[in-house]
Amino acid sequence: MTKKKLIEFNSFCRSKNIGFILGNILGLYGHAFVDFGDNYKCLDKTGENLPSQIVVNITKEKDGIVTVHEDKRHSFTDGDYATFREV
Q1: Residue 40 domain-assigned?
Q2: Which H or E run includes 23?
Q3: What residues pair up with 12 in beta bridges, in sequence order?
Q4: Coil, strand or helix at 32
């Protein structure tokens, strides 16, 4: 299938709000292309279980600083989403 035809399929799917997934295996390697539209948010970057932390403090500034229990290290980075439960 040509690149032009694949772009047509993807454009059609986007116009109908349909997710588009393309995968190829070519001998010893392969690739995948996924397009669920501009509003799709991928919250699981690694496929690993989501981490859980105990929050001990949140500052009251506009951009608050969240402090977790000192015995635990976390892998959160700027731009990550967090859900607070059992508050």
Answers
A1: no
A2: strand 20-26
A3: none
A4: strand
H-helix or E-strand spanning residue 55: strand 55-58
**Which of 43, 33, 41, 54 has its CA nearest to residue 80?**
43
How many domains in the chain? 1
Task: Determine the structural domain holding residue 19 and report its residue range.
Answer: 3-35
Q: How many helices (H) and strands (E) does the chain have?
A: 1, 4
Task: Give CA–CA dist 45/82, Å, rounded.
Answer: 13
One-letter amino acid of 51: P
The tens place of each residue's pLDDT in the chain, 87 residues long, gives: 788 999 999 999 999 999 999 999 988 888 889 999 888 877 666 767 766 778 888 899 988 888 887 766 677 777 777 788 777
Residue 49 lies in a domain: no
3-class DSSP state for residue 83?
Answer: coil
Q: Which amino acid is at 33?
A: F
In a domain, 19, yes or no: yes
